[in-house]
Design goal:
This protein is mostly helical. It contains two helices and no strands. Keywords: Membrane, Transmembrane, Transmembrane helix.
């Protein structure tokens, strides 16, 4: 159990947590999709 707490503590000290990476990737993919649809249907 101590190893799990150590991993969680190490993960929280990362400069950019994986949660932010996931949300930014989702937002970027949505923007790309919207731009592609706007280009395709113009």
């Amino acid at each position: 159990m101590n190893e799990l707490l150590y991993v969680l503590a190490a993960e929280s000290e990362l400069p950019m947590p994986m949660e932010y990476v996931g949300w930014s990737a989702l937002a970027l993919s949505l923007l790309v999709t919207i731009a592609w649809i706007a280009y395709f249907y113009r």
